[in-house]
Amino acid sequence: MTTQTAGSSDFIKNLGKMYGTYTGGFIAFIILLAILEQVGVPNKILGYLFVGFTIAVYAIIGVLSRTAQVSEYYVAGRVVPAFYNGMATGADWMSAASFVGMAGTLFLLGYDGLTWVLGWTGGFVLVSILIGPYLRKFGAYTVPDFMAFRFGGNFARFVAVLVLVACSFTYVTAQIYGTGIIASRFLGMKFEIAVFAGLAGILLCSMLGGMKAVTWTQIAQYVVLIIAYLTPIVILSTKHYGIPIPELTYGQAIAEITAREQQMLQTGLTTAAALKPHIQPFINYSPLNFFAICFCMMVGTASLPHILMRYFTTPSVREARQSVAWSLLFIFLLYFSAPAYAAFSKLEVYTNIIGRDVSQVRPWLFTWGELGLIQICGKNATNIDAIVAACKAIAGHPGVVRLQDFVINTDVIVLSTPEIAGLPYVITGLVAAGGLAAALSTADGLLLAIANALSHDVYYKMIDPNAPTVRRLTVARALLFVVAVIAAYLASTKPADILAMVGWAFSLAMAGNFPALIMGVWWKRTTAAGAVAGMIAGFGLCLFYLVVTRYFPGFGVKYAGMTSLLNPVTGAPLVDIAKVMALPNAMEALPTLAHPLANKVGWFNLNNIACGLLGMPFGFLVIYVVSLMTPEPSKEMQAYVDEIRKPRGRTVLVEKT
Amino acid sequence: MSDKTEAHWEATRNLMFKHLGVWLFFGYIIHFFVIPLNTIKIPILGFPLGFYMAAQGSLIVFVVMLFMFAKQQDKIDRDHGFAEED
Asked: Is residue A1 predicted with pLDDT exceeding 50?
């Protein structure tokens, strides 16, 4: 044991040197590839080198971090310093949706898209002041561990596992889907094959070393993803405005966009109906939905098990708090740059695409047009002839591209910025590697959260409490593998769009976990019956709203008093309920994406993505009422709660290793 | 529950409410006024203020307040003798 401690503290001391060398090496590798590109190595090979090299590095770290110790497998031995845990959390947190989707969402929604930026950062305040450090002091391996201890045993554990699996599984499917999209776009692989290739990358990082391996790979992945995200816009900003800080210069771009919007209106390039001014608030979301989404994302952050469990790995409660601050700083670096991407891309589209003669559309569009991601005049923009023909077919078309003729998939914004800026292909490859790092790192964290809940909570704590270490770890690895394969299979069927699925996870986590976690720490009087009832009630209500509004809208209208959502600008209903309900298929359920009411009905004009806003207050209320109706928790339990609140001393829960 | 425990928890709770208040203000309240704030232009940079607060301003506040919180809570723990050994 002594030699091992000495070895591990040496290892911790050398982290700075190791990751510094690694970062330097990565930059050298980029430069090497840039040189290879200049001497004429084809793009496809560069792309494979980029992705292959980075995944190989993650896999090597994953294999080197293999472990046979339970505490290393579940909580990385609790030795991860605040700064590095912050970086790992950053990678854990920033998903394919953040890396690829966020800027595109901001491009499309303008100001209203900022609800995601705010929501995905502000939640860390809650993590730090309300929950994270207390869970660290408690000494759990998983979030259900805490629920079980505080709320009277395995029934609470079981409910917490259900909540965890429900929110993490949709989320991990979205990540694996993201790896498939990125790999298929940049490497030209078939999507279904790319998904399983991504799966192999994920398993290599996590299976042998659990949390320990995931932590050290996530730090490496953070370095790649942040360099990849910032490089293209830093170059773009320097080119356009002479200052390499895009977060400052894009104010100019926004001013230019606003001026151009007016000009487009006057010259007939767009209509007041088609134009959504970039800085004007509340035209895509009503104020209620804007703030509801923001709130759900924030509270969801503080309830998602894969984020909370990252703070179980720090050496102390003090470092857990510092680590949340570092996490947000590292996350902030990406999120405060995303609006710059959106602004630069929008300016490019508005000045160089809109208003251009259809026969002179710039060729960078065609790569994306072939993939069906950019359309002009209602047809994929595959080449000049196709565009000219498509626009000719529209009656009264003026022969120049109008705003309403141009449709772009949100994923393209980040992925195409290097090409728009006329940068060499090596930068495009870098962005691909970054997107892949974002998706892989989040998938790793989520898979581990699910597999750990199944192996530690369900298998070890509920089925076989006497299982020896070797068997526990074998079961953990086997479950990780099984969950990963199921998620990858599901992703390969291309279920729903990434952002919607991620939003669900937040609301579900918020409704199921948040009230019980908060009350468990902050109100000693919370009883086991109250907490369990509150978890079921809050989670149940949220799930009901989600499922009914999406899959059984006819049922919702007829039996649950739901009405049509309203258009945020005009305030008119989105659909004519009476008319749709009279149709023969009104009560049909699955498959419903084509159902005219799907996602368009609800209570209080609340989007279903923000269903946590219904579930969470209900959960709090139920916990409060039921707790008061049941006898006060034992003196012993109340003393434990006092222990959780004081950083000094041993953890409350002591695991045998 | 000892007095020391009580005092420590009260200080902790007060700090929590203070930070929660700042969070509420910069997370929500200030953005209620985005439309009037957008009429103000930040000099040199050119951002409308309402947009800027949601895109950067509030985020910066969140980061800074988390570092401050870690420090302040640690001080509370130390003052009451409940901090971990360094």
From this structure: no
